[in-house]
Specification:
heterodimer, A: 445 residues, alpha+beta, Rieske Iron-sulfur Protein, Naphthalene 1,2-dioxygenase Alpha Subunit, Chain A, domain 1, nine-stranded antiparallel beta sheet, seven-stranded antiparallel beta sheet, 11 helices, B: 172 residues, Nuclear Transport Factor 2, Chain: A, six-stranded mixed beta sheet, 38% strand, globular
């Protein structure tokens, strides 16, 4: 580790952002320690390991991690590294196993991480090996409404405190129904982009009528989707909210209008509306009337790298990101509706997504601009809507006046800077939980 | 399919069909390419997982799980139509592709349709230096409509777990 670095990358008065943070190797190494070594990271969903002894292979940043459910039903996040020489003990994407054997020398671990068997323990090791100190390295694990998070930092606050009032908004999707959600996926692909470009794009609704116009137009024509224009967006009453590094876009919905979902079209709208109406009493009971009826979550990101419903931006070096796309479905929704949402989601998003395929070159060029010797000296301009955000009487967090604003990007990089300049969690501020959580939904679901 | 057609003649006819399709794609004649599909086409690309040999039945994700592509004719038509909008940025400027298709195996079905399996290598070059090599196979069901072969079902199996490509904006 080099000497501690001090970061001043975003100018709060002007919104100028130092673009060297996207490609500098030393900055990246620091990020892995100070952000991915500390923060609560989204790693999976309980529905991916539904039965005892199920496992799902995932990542915390660059570190391979096995999400397991042990025989007693408890969840574990275990570093996928044999404590002997470092081999992976799991090389499958998922499965059901009580034990994981390293294929190098045969050290064998139980799915709660305990080192159970070492060949030659009495002969070769003379019974001197302390197996109890050589279990798989375990991260802290907590769940929010079925979404599993993990952190390496023993001093990290609770997940509830980490999410804070962002949960007030997230609940409107992830905690809406008694039966919970199920995850399908992931689809995985490698993009030649810095991981932050995907995350900050979640709050960038400004790009949509330019980057995605071709797909929006054909969906208007073929699916009867409403037309998309800059003008509509500038007049939109939708807003951004920002809490603890998490960026939320939300809509102030008309009463009884279902939230926008992939798969909505003129011909499927009735199904969405019927389901929305049928589940409203349940949603109101769980969330209260305001959140059930009027607050609709749109794009959002969970600091540092959880994005857009259920997706992960996994860093693979400063200039590469492995993107994972899942679809989350309400478990008890009608099968036909689930099919429509799944097909809509995979048609729009993912490597081949009608919308998403047009994003990558944007993020790529933002990343590449930071490698060019002269270009990298010119900062990004994130000045849009400076001074037009603050506390709101009805909505928690720092709320922008408008839907089209760079408020959340500025705050995302400020949060990034705060983590990067902190010596420990003691230096990282958390907003107190102050929202009123009406209804019976809790962290557990 | 004409019942008297020999296996050799059928194989030759279908190989010509696939060579024609490859040229349509590489010459960016996507509207003509779209006409090669029946109106009830299912154009399906499942995911491929790492599983142990004894669990290979779980390697390919089934229909109903999250797929890379699961398109009907309307969605394929949207993909083709947007390319002409002047704003389909993933393909504007367009990719340079080369589809090599071979290893054709033909199995006539009792329905009169034909199962045709091929392997492909597709090279894509985009913008200045981006390039990718896509390897995989297609499992097609072909139907003869008024003397012309049409693809009624296509399952594309890529030889990849994590796709190494920035996006998948070309047709396979």
């Amino acid at each position: 580790m080099g000497a501690a670095r001090s970061y001043a990358v975003i100018d709060p008065a002007t919104g100028k952002l130092d673009r060297r943070i996207f490609t500098d190797e030393a900055v990246y190494a620091d990020e892995m320690e100070k952000i991915f070594g500390r923060a609560w990271l989204m790693i999976g969903h309980e529905s991916l390991v539904p039965a005892p002894d199920d496992f799902f292979h995932t990542y915390m940043g660059q570190d391979p991690v096995i999400l397991t459910r042990d025989g007693a039903g408890r969840l574990h996040a275990l570093l996928n590294m044999c404590r002997h020489r470092g081999n992976r003990v799991v090389r499958c994407d998922d499965g059901n196993q009580k034990r994981f054997m390293c294929t190098y020398h045969g050290w064998t671990y139980r799915n709660d991480g305990t080192l159970e068997h070492v060949p030659g323990e009495s002969e070769a090791y003379y019974s001197a090996l302390d197996k109890s100190a050589l279990g798989l390295v375990a991260a802290r694990v907590e769940s929010y409404a079925g979404i599993v998070f993990a952190t390496w930092d023993r001093d990290a606050p609770s997940l509830e405190a980490y999410l804070g009032d962002a949960r007030w908004y997230l609940d409107t999707v992830f905690n809406r129904c008694d039966g919970g959600m199920q995850a399908l996926g992931p689809m995985k692909w490698l993009e030649p982009v810095n991981w932050k470009t995907l995350v900050d794009n979640c709050s960038d609704n400004y790009h949509v009528p330019t980057s995605h116009l071709s797909s929006a137009r054909v969906q208007t024509r073929w699916l009867g989707r409403p037309p998309l224009s800059h003008e509509d967006q500038f007049q939109s009453p939708n807003k951004h909210a920002f809490v603890n590094g998490h960026a939320i876009t939300f809509r102030e919905a008309l009463d009884n209008a279902p939230r926008y979902m992939h798969g909505m079209s003129q011909e499927t709208m009735r199904l969405f509306q019927d389901y929305h109406d049928a589940t409203m009493p349940e949603a109101e009971r769980r969330l209260g009337a305001l959140r059930a009826r009027r607050v609709q979550l749109a794009n959002h990101s969970i600091f540092p790298n959880g994005i857009l419903g259920f997706r992960l931006a996994l860093p693979r070096g400063p200039r590469q990101t492995e993107f994972w796309h899942f679809v989350l479905l309400e478990r008890d929704a009608p099968e036909e509706l689930k099919r429509i949402i799944r097909i809509g989601s995979q048609a729009n998003n993912g490597a081949a997504g009608l919308f998403e395929q047009d994003d990558v070159d944007n993020w790529r060029q933002v990343t590449e601009a930071s490698t060019s010797p002269f270009a990298r000296r010119q900062p990004q301009d994130l000045s849009m809507g400076l001074g037009h955000a603050g506390p709101h009487p009805d909505y928690p967090g720092l709320v922008s006046e408008r839907y089209i604003s760079e408020n959340n990007q500025r705050l995302f990089y400020r949060r990034w800077q705060e983590f990067m300049n902190a010596d420990s969690w003691a230096d990282i501020a958390l907003d107190p939980i102050s929202a009123r959580f009406d209804g019976i939904a809790t962290m557990r679901g | 399919m004409a019942p008297e057609m020999s296996a050799q003649a059928l194989w030759f006819e279908l190989m010509q069909f696939y060579i024609r399709e490859a040229w349509l794609l590489d010459e960016r004649k996507f509207t003509e390419w779209l006409d090669l599909f029946t109106d009830d086409i299912l154009y399906f690309m499942p995911r491929r997982k790492n599983v142990l040999r004894r669990e290979l039945h779980r390697e390919v994700t089934p229909l109903g799980d999250l797929a890379i592509l699961e398109e009907d004719k309307r969605y394929l038509a949207m993909r083709v139509a947007r390319l002409d909008s002047g704003m389909a940025w993933a393909e504007d400027p367009p990719s340079r592709t080369r589809h090599l298709v071979g290893n054709l195996e033909v199995t006539p079905l009792a329905t009169g349709e034909v199962k045709a399996r091929t392997a492909f290598l597709v090279y894509r070059s985009h913008l200045e230096t981006d390039s990718q090599l896509l390897s995989g196979c297609r499992d097609d069901v072909l139907r003869n409509i008024d003397g012309a072969w049409r693809i009624a079902r296509r399952t594309i199996l890529l030889d990849a777990n994590v796709l190494l490509d920035k996006n998948l904006s070309v047709f396979l």
